Amino acid sequence: MSAEDFNLPRQTHEIFAVMARGNFISSNGSRDGMNRLYDVINNPENFDRLQAYFNVIRFNIERGNNYFYFSKLGEPNSELEKKLERFERYIDIIDLLASMDNKITIGSRFRPTEIAEECNANVRLKQKLQKIPLYRSETLHNKVREICELMSRDSFLELEDEKTESYKVLDSYTYLLDIINAVAIYEDTGSSGDSTQGLIYN
Amino acid sequence: MTLQVNVNDILSQLYQHRSVVELLFANRENITVNELLAREDISHEHFQKLKSLDLIYEYESIVSLNDAVVAMFEDFMEIGEVTPGLINDYLNELNRHISFYQEVREMRFLRSIKKYLKRINTAITREIIKLQKNVDDTYKNESNYRIKLQKLEDYRTKRDTIIDFIKRSGVLLEENRNLFSLSGDSELYGIVQNLKGSLIENLDYLIEIQTDITDFINKIQFQLDVYVKAQHLKEIKDHGALFFRTNFKEVVENINTLRHNGHKSPKTKIPVDFLYSDDGHVLCKKVAEKYKLTRLMLRGVADKMGANFKEKGLEQQIKLDTEKLVQRFLTQSKLNLFEYLMDYKFPKAIGEVSFEERLSLFVEIAMEYQNKLDFKYRLHYFDYEDANKNKKRLGYTLILPLLENKKKEKAVKNE
What we know:
The structure holds two protein chains of two kinds.
Chain A: H1 12-19, E1 25-26, H2 34-42, H3 44-56, E2 59-64, E3 67-72, H4 80-99, E4 109-110, H5 112-121, H6 123-131, H7 140-153, E5 157-161, E6 166-169, H8 173-182, H9 191-194
Antiparallel strand pairs in A: 1-3, 2-3, 4-6, 5-6
Chain B: H1 7-16, H2 18-26, E1 31-32, H3 33-38, H4 44-52, E2 56-59, E3 62-65, H5 67-77, H6 85-103, H7 107-141, H8 145-175, H9 177-183, H10 186-238, H11 242-245, H12 248-253, H13 258-261, H14 272-276, H15 278-291, H16 294-298, H17 309-331, H18 337-343, H19 355-368, E4 373-385, E5 391-401, H20 404-414
Antiparallel strand pairs in B: 1-3, 2-3, 4-5
């Protein structure tokens, strides 16, 4: 029983290899032909076949805005403690990125040094960065680097150029933004009122 | 202009230094004089000449092409900044010429009218294409979000300007319909019809661009809004109220990604057959290294087979046989070597062994195992038929196995 028997795309194996590791496939990722894989899944015919194929082993392809990932069918979401810890850290990171002068959004390219420098120049940012709980990293630069590595491991960023250490923000970053957007804040007294659109306190 | 120039001069200068022009066009704003001269496409004199013709400028040692040249290339390639003002100029010119034509019905004014109608048509289409390209480019590549938003808003205004011009062109065509039809010029009629069609088409296209721009702005806005929210959440979190004042816990609980739930990819057993293959071996090696299993490490991948490995194999086989053959020959005493070889029944695996092969084997054994053989230096004769059925007689040396005592003698002699 091979992939061809089900009329599956040739890249099925690659797709599985990426997504079963818990990674996202983003449309603007360029490493290892990721954008090509995205196009393959995005083709409606392929999508249905792949979905049916992976459903057999209880994997479900989830579609987001320009990205795909796997979820597990019929298995309860587990490891709540770890998950909470992780997403709390994401909040720290996104809060840091949101407070930067130069906003990092989807498709942006940046180098850890740039962020480190800005943090160095701005006390508020510096404090934010220092408070993000990470293991090693004494210098600001190393800390930013570690954050970038962590985010690329989770396939939200991509190391585009190793020589210049330049990262690119992938479409999967929307996933994090969506999660944050989904969180409802209770008894929100007026604070959302004063933050006019597009204005961000720095 | 400092010098009187003509088209020929400009073209030949541009052509002569086309590599430089290409470079400067591709890298606007960041080539210095030194960089340019270091490239060796252009000498200092030539550089001065281009400068004196105003084809390139130098400002704070940054070299740039003349804007007119850049604009020409951009127009042809339909790139560059959107300049809807151009359409306005054409419209004004058109109006002027129409009024001339209304005064005096002369062909020269009609010709200009046609020219400007055509120009308006191409200009509108070109500007729209540029607009589309620029909007896409800004959204994808502009890294600073404030400038990105500003730029997109600017494009929105430019789009409105173009729509305005399209409407004005439409009105103009409508107003002068009688004039155009009175002229009785079929070419003019064609141009007007063409323009009308493309005006409608372009209007549709602009509406599409508008949705794109709005979409892009909304996306950026969404991201910015989320960023504000992230900052807010962070504040709540810092107050330790994240689990009480928000539904963070529920949201995170419902996250179903594999990575965040610690779901492992399914484990399957490796087929045993695979482990015997070369790829399987590489895998085994990795495992062995990881768990320090020396037993698995010992097995190595075979070297690449030589191209002539088949022939080699056969040779070796025969050689192996030779040794055994000699051993067997030495244990008997009835026959001499030649007779022994001629009568010997080789194993089937080797196949038919021809007379010539047996003969070469005889020579080989005689040469290689001379210490174990007793050379009698007497000729015996052997009659046989060759391939053409000619009777032949072959003389050969009588060679017998060396007997034990003689062996010793020979050994002493050798010492």
